[in-house]
Structures are given as C-alpha cells and as structure tokens.
Amino acid sequence: MSVNQDYERSIREAEPMIEPDDPDSALPSPRLGADSLIWKFYGDSRGILGFQRLAGTENCIEQLGQAVLDHSVIFDDFLGRAKRTGPPVMKTVYSTEPQKWGRTVRDFHRDIKGTISDGSRYHALNPELFYWAHATFVDQVLYITDTFIRRLSYAEKVQIFEESKVWYDLYGVSSRSQPQTYEEFLEYWDDMLDRFVPHKTVVYATGYIRQGLPRPKKIPAPVWKVASAPLNAFLRTVIVGTLPQQMRDVCGLKWDAKREKNFQRFAATMRALNPAFNRLPIKWLYVPWAYQAWREIGVDPRPLYNKRAA
Description:
single chain; oxidoreductase activity; MPAB/Lcp_cat_dom; EC 1.-.-.-; oxidoreductase
C-alpha cells in the first residue's frame, strides 16, 4: 500500500477520531512486555543518537510542524519540551499501566488544532497526523537498533512492526491510516518523506547543527571555540548522518560522500562494541523508565535477543 490515496482529503478533515473504551470488556488491555523486541531496544540509551531523526522527521510534515509552533514552547524551552513529552510515551511501553499512559499522551493532543499555510485546518488527533507521529517512534526503534546496536534480520523487523500495532492501540486513536504489513510500512514511510517541507519549527530545531553549538555563558569564547570544534564535527557527521536525505535537504544540512563514509565507520564501530555495551550495568544501558520496568519484573535484558535471528 502507498499512503492512503485519500490522504490529502483525510488530513484536511482535521477531525479527531478517538476510539471509545469498553469498560465492560472481559479482554485484557493490550500491552508489550519483556518478550517483545520493542522492550529490548526502545529504551536503550543509545537511542539518544536518534533524537534529531525522531523529532525532525515528525515535524517535517507541515501540520505537525505548525502544531508545535502554535501550541508548544519549543522556541523558548526546547529541552524542557523534550523532557515533558518523552516520559509519557516511554511509560506507554514500559509502565504497568500502559493504556492509562497511552490515553494520557492522546489527551495531551485534544486541543492541538489550527491552520497551515494554505489555510486548511489540522487537528493532532486526526488519524493521519497521529499515526505519522507514532511511525517516527517505530522508525526510531528499527533504525537505531539496526544502525548502532546490531543488524536486525528481516523477521525481526517484521516483529517490531507487528508489535508497534499493539503500541499504537494503547493510544486509543483510530488506526485507519496504519499500514498492515511491514512492507506497507516501508512504502508508507518513503511516501511520507516525499511530503517533507522546510517548516520553521524543524529549521529552527536544526539551527544548532548549521551554526554550531551555542556557547555556555560561563565558558570564555576562546575556550569554547576550541572545545566545541569536535562536538560540532560529531553533530555534523553522526547526527546529520542519521537523517533521511529529504530532511537534510529541507533543513539545509550539508552532506557528502566523505561524511557518509565517516558516519558508516562510526556506526560499524558502535555495532562492534555491542558486546561491551551489554556488559554495562543495566542502569547505564537503559533510560530510567525502561530500567525500572526491567528491575520490577526481575529480568536481566542484557542477554536477551543479542544474536541476529536466522
């Protein structure tokens, strides 16, 4: 499947489509657990390498970029916004009340609506928008794992996609635009990349890459000039290397064969170091919400799913 042929019409409906809860259902709420690849890899600390890919690809779609501009404090408190939005999504996967947290994430977006440059309306709980936001998290698990942790087999990629359907169900938003197979998801992803635009939100959010990291007030300018050079080089190779070319293009981020070669060398080194990472304490290997979940169930995730499936 390609993106729904009615995508443009559907997204411009700008209508929230919330799935009703059934309090009388005898069936348990869907949830992910320690037997899932998403539990194993989503909360891995190495996911920080994909922070710009995650946030940027989401906001390269005009409606979502505009929603952030209209309703967020991103321009005044970029890191604060990340700290407020990240934990509830993480708890949707790792808490003992995933549906509660999924609904919390959904309800954050009930009043997120407005108009874009052509005057058409948007609503964050329109299924086409909400699923795209979710798809960027699915992509993060797939991309970061396969690039920086270890190569995934095709079967594992399919499994992660199938698990992502359970994850999406926890939000209680219509799944009408959700691809049904991994192959459909790949086609959907490629189609969405072709819809990227240089929205002010994402151009602003990548300014630190083009201009260099801002100097902390307490560090003298000459010292920062020397100290920031390797940091900026890292950003312009490793962080930009994680981005789809369509995002580099709309954000004006330079890329060439030399940087691609250096990026692939770094990624290969990270994968080669995976056995060493898996000897780290769990508290270091996982972000706090994932670490707490593994500790509560008494499972050591380090030996799980370390070898590529046949």
